[in-house]
């Protein structure tokens, strides 16, 4: 580093004496000098009207070229921090508002009596509470697919194929509702695999189901509207609804799914009901046909909408999957939401929603104002992945793998956790709700499990009101056999730790 010349005898004013210009820094010297002088002006150590040394003297004393000082002064003058008086040199501008500069100087010191800058809105504060914090995914994280089993070779070939020589249409920005061939592929997949009634016109490509929930809340909810949510239920839905200004009405879930009768007595005039009928999250119940029809009937009579979250319906291990609720809707009331987070990998951040004809324009407008359109990068590859049958094939392979893993988990529970938990086989999904036998507090066990590097959240955390049952959500799909067995031993340790308190 260059050393400065004789500092004491130099023209270097006090505000620059601590300045260490670093010639090896990637930040050019003139920028370093500019920042130092600007900071000194803003924090008040260089007062309004102060005359700066001439550029020649300063350059000598800082041991830099005169051009460096000239460039810094030019920038400061252009931005209004300095003003030049011909023949007299450069001065700190007199017009800078003194009070603003003092506030800035004191702000760093958190002076007593000064107001802090404003915080988030009440809605923002509510959202902080709702978002909570989730640990990084680890052993047994619910809903985590087996990432190592994904055909990345094939996926990277598809990505490269579409981007080696991309058409201009990929580069200039896409359509608000998504890449047309992907919308067509998704519409075909949903018609055949889920009996969803749609054409590509109804399909919107989104960045994961979470964005679909957010868009639905923006389009369908006015501040103060009531929305039924499942109790217990998925926190992501609640967050999206609160962000949209909705009042949440938790409606109990029984063995047939969300209780429509309870919803009708709690809030008959709700604007929206949110359900996960294929595999209720988190309890895993499949909504009965009778309940589905009741729900649609209520929606018609109440002039309300139903939001169907079909987040993991592909994983059904016994019996035939029940078709989507949307396929029963003759009235244009169901908004259908799905995702490839569970059938491919969550980092892809792609999902889809199907909206009735009369809402397409509103969703298009809101989409434009939200993030313009989905990123182009992965959409063409995903369209081909679906069209060529790779998605269906991958799902078939994962269904077999996950059924095996569920059986291994249940077997390990029988061997290692006998008398401590009840773990029953489930016909569908990616997690089990394991009940704790000794009446232990599920939050205490979940946090003791975290110390064992296990992410098995407490069921009671999914209730808005007082929980009427407890347990742990254990995701078995993303965990290889050896890790399942080790994880079960970790769970045993966590349960014993809490039982011994
Ligand atoms: C019930 C439920 N709905 C929706 C989602 C959101 O999925 P995405 O990753 O597509 O936003 C999840 C993800 O965990 C979920 O569990």
UniProtKB/TrEMBL annotation:
Pfam family, any one: Aminotran_1_2
Family matches, as SUPFAM superfamilies: PLP-dependent transferases (SSF53383), Winged helix' DNA-binding domain (SSF46785)
Keywords assigned by UniProt, alphabetized: DNA-binding, Pyridoxal phosphate, Transcription, Transcription regulation
CDD domains in the cross-refs: AAT_like, WHTH_GntR
GO molecular-function terms, A-Z: DNA binding; DNA-binding transcription factor activity; pyridoxal phosphate binding
The HTH gntR-type domain, residue ranges: 27-95
Entry keyword annotation includes Transcription: yes
Domain of life according to the entry: Bacteria
PANTHER family: HTH-TYPE TRANSCRIPTIONAL REGULATORY PROTEIN GABR (PTHR46577:SF1)
The family this protein is said to belong to: In the C-terminal section; belongs to the class-I pyridoxal-phosphate-dependent aminotransferase family.
Record's protein name: Transcriptional regulator, GntR family
Organism: Arboricoccus pini
């Amino acid at each position: 580093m260059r050393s400065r010349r004789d500092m004491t005898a130099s023209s270097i004013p006090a505000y620059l004496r601590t300045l260490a210009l670093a010639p090896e820094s990637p930040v050019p010297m003139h920028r370093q000098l500019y920042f130092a002088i600007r900071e000194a002006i803003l924090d008040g150590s260089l007062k309004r009207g102060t005359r700066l040394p001439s550029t020649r003297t300063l350059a000598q004393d800082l041991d830099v070229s005169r051009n460096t000082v000239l460039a810094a002064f030019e920038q400061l003058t252009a931005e209004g921090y300095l003003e030049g008086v011909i023949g007299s040199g450069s001065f700190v501008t007199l017009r800078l508002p003194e009070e603003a500069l003092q506030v800035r100087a004191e702000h760093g010191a958190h002076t007593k009596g000064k107001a802090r800058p404003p915080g988030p809105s009440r809605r923002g504060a509510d959202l902080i509470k709702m978002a909570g914090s989730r640990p990084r995914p680890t052993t047994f994280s619910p809903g985590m697919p087996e990432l190592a089993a994904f055909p990345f070779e094939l996926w990277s070939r598809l990505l490269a194929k579409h981007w080696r020589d991309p058409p201009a249409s990929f580069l200039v920005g896409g359509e608000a509702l998504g890449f047309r061939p992907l919308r067509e592929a998704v519409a075909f997949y949903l018609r055949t695999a889920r009996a969803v009634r749609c054409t590509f016109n109804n399909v919107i490509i989104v960045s994961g189901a979470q964005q679909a929930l957010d868009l639905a809340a923006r389009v369908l909810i006015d501040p103060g509207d009531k929305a039924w949510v499942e109790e217990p239920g998925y926190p992501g839905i609640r967050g999206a609804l609160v962000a949209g200004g909705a009042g949440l009405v938790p409606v109990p879930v029984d063995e047939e799914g969300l209780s429509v009768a309870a919803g009708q007595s709690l809030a008959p005039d709700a604007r929206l009901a949110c359900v996960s009928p294929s595999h209720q999250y988190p309890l895993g119940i499949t909504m009965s046909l009778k309940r589905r029809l009741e729900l649609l009937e209520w929606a018609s009579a109440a002039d309300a909408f139903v939001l169907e979250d079909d987040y993991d319906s592909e994983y059904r291990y016994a019996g035939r999957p029940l078709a989507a609720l949307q396929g029963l809707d003759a009235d244009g009331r169901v908004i259908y939401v799905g995702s490839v987070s569970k059938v491919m990998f969550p980092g892809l951040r792609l999902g889809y929603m199907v909206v009735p004809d009369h809402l397409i324009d509103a969703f298009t407008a809101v989409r434009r104002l939200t993030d313009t359109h989905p990123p182009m990068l992965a959409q063409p590859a995903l369209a081909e992945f679906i069209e060529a049958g790779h998605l269906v094939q991958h799902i078939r392979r994962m269904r077999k793998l996950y059924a095996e893993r569920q059986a291994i988990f249940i077997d390990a529970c029988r061997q290692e956790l006998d008398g401590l938990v009840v773990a029953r086989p489930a016909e569908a999904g990616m997690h089990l709700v394991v009940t704790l036998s000794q009446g232990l507090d599920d939050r205490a066990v979940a946090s003791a499990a975290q110390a064992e590097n296990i992410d098995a959240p407490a069921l009671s955390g999914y209730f808005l009101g007082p929980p009427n049952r407890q347990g742990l959500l254990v995701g078995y799909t993303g965990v290889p056999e050896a890790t399942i067995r080790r994880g079960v031993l970790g769970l045993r340790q966590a349960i014993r730790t809490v039982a011994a308190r």
